[in-house]
Structure formats: C-alpha cells, structure tokens
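thread from #wetlab-drylab

HS: before we spend reagent money on co-crystallization trials with zinc ion, can we at least see a predicted complex? here's what I'd submit
DV: go for it
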Amino acid sequence: MFKKAINQELMRNNNKAQILRCVKAKQVVSKRELTEELGLSTTTVSTFIRELEEENLIQNSGVARSTGGRRSLLYQLKPDYCYTLGLDLKVDRVVGVLLDFKGDIKAEKEVTFLERDEWKVIPLLKTFIHNLLAEYEIAWSKRGGSGIGIPGVVNNEAESSDFAPNLGWKNVDLPAMLALDKPIYLENEANAGALGEVVFGLGKNVGHLAYISVGMGIGCGLIIDHKLFSGHLRNAGEFGHMTVEPEGFPCRCGNRGCWEVYASNSATLRMYAEATNNEQITFPEFLRKCQENDYHATEVLRTVTKYLGLGIASVINALNPEMVVIGGEITNVKSLIFNSLLKEIKERTLEKSFSGVRLDFSQLGNRAAALGMGTIVLEKIINALS
Ligand SMILES: [Zn+2]
C-alpha cells in the first residue's frame, strides 16, 4: 500500500515535470498539443497547468488559432519567475548575459580586467554580477543561479576550477570565493560555447557539433547526440593539445608541438613577432593589419589558417560532426581565410565526413560561452523543480 502511494506520487511528479519541460521546449504550447505530445488525459494536463500557474512557473500567452471546435489556450514559461546569469571569464575580461526564465536575453555586459590573481579578479566578478542585475533593475532575490565558463578544467565533484593555466589559476574554489547565496555552476568555456551555439547560434537543433574556441589556447566543445560530451573526468575535447609537430615548440601542457602552439592567437602573435620583431602588437591590431593587406601579417595568417585547417580536419575525421563552428576573434577575418581553410580541411578529411559537414564561424561574437552558461543554469533550475 505504502509502495503504491510512493509510485503514484512519483508518476504525478513525473507528469508535471514532463509538462514543464514540454512548455520549455516548445516555447508556446496549447493544452491540446500537450495532451497529444505527452499522451496524457485532458484532465491531467489541466490539473498540472493550474498548479504550474499557481506556482508562477508558467503563464497564459493567448489563444491558439481556431482549427474548428473549441479554441485552445496557449501557455509559456513565466519569464520573470527567475533570472539566470551566464558569465564567460576570459583572460582579460568577463562577458556576461542575463537570461529570463524563458531563456530570452535581457541584458549583456562586458568588462575588461587588468588583474589576473584570483583574489583580485573574484571581487571584480562579484561587482560585475551586482551591476548586471542592477542595470536591468532585477532584484537580487530574483536571481536563480549563475554559471561561469572558465578557460580550464573544472573539478568533477567540487565544481571548482582545477586548473586554468591561461588565468594562472590552480585549485581555485571560485563558487566558495564568490560566496553568493544562490548556486554557481562552472564549466569549461569551450563546452559552454558549444551549448551557446546549439541554443542561440548557428547550430540550432544540430545533434553533432564541434565548437572550436580559438583564443590564447584552443578549446573544443563537443555536442554528441544532442548532449554535451564531457568525458570520464570532464576533460574531453582537448584537441588543442593534440600533437601536430612532433619536434615542435613546447606547450604549457608539458608536451611539444601541440595544435594550439601553432593555431591559437598567442601562436599567431609569436609567429608575427618572429617575422617582424614586433612583440608589442595585440591580436586585434594583428587582425587589422591583415585586413589592410600588410605583407607579414597576411603571411602569418596564411600559416595559421593552414594549421587551423589541419587540426579541424582531424576533429572531423575523429567525430564525424554535422557542423563545426569556429569561435573567437579570428571570426573577424572570416572573409580572408574561409576559402583557404575549407581547402585545407577538404584535402585532409575523409570524403564522406567532409561532404556531410557544415563549417562556419560563430555569429554570437564573444557571447557564445556566456549564453551557454546561462542555458546550463536554466536547465539545472528546471531539473531541480522536476
Ligand atoms: Zn599542449
């Protein structure tokens, strides 16, 4: 008898969670669609819709166009149930977005840092979060949680940053140091970027996507079968450290000749300095020189494109993705490198894999990872409600 009661309760919660998830997935949905989609009775759907409305999780959003018979009310998630913050902690800046409960972008913000040490960066991060909410006049209590993308490895259990070499951080317990009263989730920035692309960017509804994040290093976020692939120890996608030159330059990982030592932004600047003795140039300045047709810059860009292409070819051969999206500042010179990059990739991939893949440059600017983090937090909130 007792067991039966538990089972009934479980089933009840499961039905309610299914309805909530279906409203989220479809954005706007009628009662009729919910009953058809989930195979539940009209009474069950009506009961749970009423409960979800009372809990402020969903709201009415008009009436479905009549197709004969009774008109059906439409429902959507209640945008102001809570808000999530998605942050991307980069080497010299933080990019943040504020999403409402429906997943729509309400605000975005970017601030540059001159500091690298965690005890200096973390208070700045906290102020950033306060300001992002304040600018959109969102009460502190309306915050459902925050997600932070980091350029490094995230600890499997403690959700701390094990190792973020480009930040110079090791074993930094970011959530504990931020000490916010709502949950904080961490994820590798390339993984977050991949999620950002499938939810907000070019990869909408793509089941197999590789997101190549080109920055100081190269990260790779993988969506496999519509899910983020993290690997056994949440360390998957480290293609930046596959060897492309056996006797090549040493890499910060301890290996030599890694892909990111030949195709990242820092690799680009190193090659440019070797050619010109100009060690002061920044990556945006380098890109500007490329656009102005500067001889040395163009030559370096050609070499980097070649390495970028051969690495992406290996990713394609290994994973057979449906889509590859390249993110990072390099997207600003897409028109200069797209054809030669495609040529390089085509020459080095298996015919079948190449013919089935779409390659493009991110259109999310530098927001892909922040948007992905906001999405992760929303998912966690919905999961906790279910
Ligand atoms: Zn390496």
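DV: The two ends are 24 Å apart (CA to CA).
HS: ok that's useful, forwarding to the group
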